[in-house]
Each structure stands twice: as C-alpha cells, then as structure tokens.
Design brief:
- The chain is α+β, with helices and mostly antiparallel strands and 253 residues long.
- Helix content is 35%, strand content 21%.
- It is built from 7 helices and 8 strands; from the N terminus they run H-H-H-H-H-E-E-E-E-E-E-E-E-H-H.
- The protein has a 4-stranded mixed beta sheet. Strands 2-3-7-6 form a 4-stranded antiparallel beta sheet, with no helix packed on it.
- Helix 1 runs parallel beside helix 3, helix 3 packs parallel to helix 7 and helix 4 crosses helix 6.
- The radius of gyration is 19 Å and the shape is globular.
- The two termini are 35 Å apart.
- The relative contact order is 0.15.
C-alpha cells in the first residue's frame, strides 16, 4: 500500500520536475508555495496528523515516503509549518489555537520560519536573549534573531523567547506565534553566495496576545525536543543525496 502511494507521489511530481526548490526555495517561492497548496488539496501535508485534527493518521512511514520522493525530485523541503508547528500545536495548543492555525497549515496556505537563533545564541539555544515580558494579557517582544531561512517569504514566526530571568537558561524559555506583519517586526536580508538569502529579524516592542503563546510559560524546551524528534525522519531525507549520487555516477560513466 505504501509503495502504491510512492508511485502516486512520483506521478504527481512529474509536473514539478523543473522546480528545483530543495536548496533554492527563496528563489522560486511562489512555485514552491503552489506545490504545497496542491499537496494540501490531497491531504498530504497532514498525513500523520490525528484524524480529530483533520489528518489521516497514516503514520511516520507514509510521511517518510512522501518527503523522500519530494527530495529526490529536488522540488522542495518539507514545510516547517506542517511539521514542527502543527505537531506542537496538536500536543500543546489550546482548542482555539488548533482551530485557528491548523486548517490553513493543512491546506498549504500558512507558512512559518523558525525564529530560534540569535547572534549570541546559535548552537546554544539555552542562551536566547530575546525578551517576552508579560504586560497584562499580552507580551512585549524585544530583541534580534538572525540566520532565519526564508523569513522574507513566510507568514509567521515560530518564536523562541525568554520569559524567565536572564540566567534561567533552558528553564526560562517560551514559544510564541508571531505574524510577520505585526507592528515592530522588521526583516532584513543576509545575502548568500547562491543569490538566495538568510535574514535578520528585529522585534521592536512587538505586542502579542497571551493566546499566541504555545504551551506553558517557561515550558518551551520540552516542546522543542519533541518537535525535533518528530522531524528527524523527514527533515533530511536521503532521496536528495541518492539523486546527487546517481547523477554523479552517470557523469563518470
């Protein structure tokens, strides 16, 4: 049954054989977004989600086959919205959060950039300094993120910020959803040698309602650990490397 699905995916991807959005997504984002919408129409962005949340509950093997074939076709990487964000919302989000955010993620309409890394907190995310200070029923976000992939094209940020004391390390971090068009958000490009770009993102007094925090305050570390474990089987599929190897062998022959 799964191999039948693989054949279906391959046939679908024939129309996207020239897309080449796996490494250069920022250069062809409108076409990649159209691909995700087409996949959303088929229910493929929510293959392993629970049925109660609009998914198909097909399990990890189906997701693996899907994104391995997409990588082999060099069409696109799997969207973080349908993986890290959606699974975290399914586990830790409120009913209202799931009702608001999951449907447009499932259809390929809503996309996220991870706002984790900072100039002083790249590999050491426990050192994040961006502040989220509670003010009544909202939070005020202040600080800088950097090296955000595709932030120029995404709709929202999956934002890691410090709600605890400065020395709280991993115990004082919270996760938020921040729309890119909120007042105080500024995205600046960091050009790369291939003509694409990474980004710096500045949050200057950005106001987020309390219901934009996902999970408990100061509880982000456990959420991130579970989400990253989910992603390991599809974030770096071997199909892309297999395609490179095959083409190199053909060239050497």
């Amino acid at each position: 049954e799964i191999e039948g699905f693989r054949a279906e995916v391959r046939a679908f991807l024939e129309s996207y054989s020239e897309l080449d959005g796996y490494l250069g997504q920022g250069l062809v984002w409108p076409e990649v977004r159209a691909l995700f919408r087409a996949m959303g129409e088929r229910g493929w962005l929510s293959l392993a989600w629970p049925i109660a949340q609009g998914g198909q509950d097909r399990g990890a093997a189906w997701e693996y086959v899907l994104w391995d074939e997409v990588a082999y076709a060099r069409a696109a990487r799997n969207p973080l919205s349908a993986g890290i964000v959606a699974r975290s919302l399914i586990r830790y989000g409120t009913d209202s959060q799931r009702s608001e955010w999951l449907p447009p993620i499932r259809t390929g309409e809503l996309h996220f950039s991870l706002a984790y890394s900072e100039p002083e907190a790249g590999s050491d995310l426990a050192a994040v300094r961006v502040r989220a200070d509670r003010e009544g029923d909202s939070y005020r976000i202040q600080g800088q993120k950097c090296w955000q992939s595709y932030a120029q094209d995404m709709d929202c940020f999956w934002l890691l910020a410090r709600t605890g004391e400065p020395e709280s390390r991993a115990r004082g971090l919270s996760l938020f959803i921040c729309e890119k068009d909120r007042p105080g958000v500024q995205v600046q490009p960091l050009p790369t040698l291939d003509g694409d770009q990474l980004n710096e993102v500045y949050f200057d007094g950005v106001r987020l309602p309390e219901d934009h925090r996902v999970g408990p305050e100061n509880g982000a570390w456990a959420i991130m650990g579970e989400a990253l474990a989910d992603e390991r089987h599809i974030q770096f599929p071997p199909g892309r490397v297999r395609r490179d190897l095959e083409e190199m062998m053909q060239w050497l022959d």
